[in-house]
Amino acid sequence: MTNVTLPGVITRNVAAVLRARVARVQATQTELAAVSGVSQSQLSKILRGTRAIDLDVLDRLCWTLGLDVADVLAEAERDAADLRGRGYPDPIFYRDGGRTIFGGRSMSEGGGTLMAAREDDDDAESEAQQDEP
């Protein structure tokens, strides 16, 4: 038996945005596949949200559909944020004030190297800004 991991919520939301645009422009998958250079089989899986989307493929599909990649990703993220507000799991890695949190733990509690590197980057940036006239 093979373990199959389905794409995450962002991938499914991107697929929904693409499907809506395909319907709006009344394109067939065959037409979209031919113009974008994505195989119809791969395109079908992408539009169903069952296949992860390579960024270059997303770029080609967005260009073909007259969409901006950043807008598609922003809409997908907004929809994901709505899910998070309804009990979707917290992010695994995020910043909380000056602390980096990983899996609910501060990086300084169990992986200070990354936190120290991040703090050094912040300090270097501050120093560079102070040196400028």
Q: How is this structure best described in words?
A:
This protein is mostly helical and 133 residues long. It folds into two domains: 9-85, 434 Repressor (Amino-terminal Domain) (Orthogonal Bundle); 93-131, no CATH class. 65% of the residues lie in helices and 8% in strands. The protein contains seven helices and three strands; from the N terminus they run αααααβββαα. It has helices spanning 9-25, 29-36, 40-48, 55-65, 69-85, 107-110, 112-131, and strands at 93-96, 99-102, 105-106. It has a three-stranded antiparallel β-sheet with strand order 1-2-3. α1 packs across α5 (69-85). It is elongated and about 50 Å long. The termini are far apart. This is DNA-binding Xre family transcriptional regulator. Residues 119-133 have a biased composition (Acidic residues). Residues 104-133 are annotated as: Disordered.
- The CATH superfamily of the largest domain appears as lambda repressor-like DNA-binding domains
Q: In CATH, what is the class of the largest domain?
A: Mainly Alpha
Gyration radius (Cα, Å) is 20 Å
Number of domains in the coordinates?
2
Distance between the termini: 64 Å
| Share in helix | 55-70%
Report the major sheet: 3 strands, antiparallel
Q: List the strand order in the largest sheet.
A: 1-2-3
Number of strands: 3
Keywords: DNA-binding
Biased composition (Acidic residues): 119-133
Protein name: DNA-binding Xre family transcriptional regulator
Domain HTH cro/C1-type: 28-72
